[in-house]
Amino acid sequence: MSGLLLENKNAVIYGGGGAIGGAIARVFAREGARVFIAGRTQERLDAVARDIAATGATVETAYVDVLDQQAVGKHADAIAATAGSIDIALNAVSVMHDQGTLLADLSLEEFMRPIDGFLRTLFITSKAVARHMGHTRPGVILTLSEPGAKLAVGGILGHGVSAAGKEAFSRLLAAELAPSNIRVINIRPHAVVDAPAAGSYTQDLFKASAAAAGQSVQEFLEGGMAQGTLLKRLPTLSEIAETAAFMASDRAGAMTGTIANLSAGALVD
């Protein structure tokens, strides 16, 4: 068995310039994958690519709007034509959404924003890559959700419904693609403690809640949110990335249709 988890694998990461997508791209490359990162902010993609290239690994970037089904399809086709196949795909796309507004004051548009945005990108990217996966080369599609999928708290209607939708999508897609030798696994982290420093949208997402508590976003995450978990801490980017690499590898070949719970005990399944 190779010492590298993802040796000779071709991996595409949508949202590869973000905090989570970038962290996973770096670990995938370290573990031997040829990495293709796509997103809508070229500067962030380039920053991740420079880190990967500096290690001698192979990486390519592409400006792709994941809400454009035709563009995503062409990009996936081009990767398959260049690399021969797509073995791993991760959707790490972020969609800004409201957290904290109760039903009485929540607009339909804000409620639907994460539901439509997250699920639309999952459908588009999964459909684009699935036709280039599986059969003689095992394929893996990784998705990301949040504890809001199962938490019973107020003020996260759109967020919670979209998270539950992402988990249902992953489970149902796993059943559909299993005959083609494609696994589908959802990874459920909590808010990520080191994401603000890494440039994720976490800073904007929790700014209002933190301000209401008289705290910085980092204080808000490390204080109140972390204390709501069994481990009294939040997951790190490294923990999420290392888990993703294992789940994408052949060593996790019997796992599909399931959720990797990285919520630090915010949820106990």
UniProtKB/TrEMBL annotation:
Q: What class of enzyme is it?
A: oxidoreductase
Q: Does the keyword Transmembrane helix apply?
A: no
Question: Per the record's keyword annotation, is Cytoplasm included, yes or no?
Answer: no
A molecular function (GO) held by this record is: oxidoreductase activity
* Superkingdom field: Bacteria
What Enzyme Commission number(s) does the record list for this chain?
Answer: 1.1.1.-
Assigned keywords, A-Z: Oxidoreductase
Q: Which CDD domains match?
A: SDR_c
Q: Which Pfam families match?
A: adh_short_C2
Q: Where are the transmembrane segments?
A: none
Q: Which family does it belong to?
A: Belongs to the short-chain dehydrogenases/reductases (SDR) family.
Protein's recorded name:
SDR family NAD(P)-dependent oxidoreductase
Query: Which source organism does the UniProt entry give?
Result: Streptosporangium vulgare
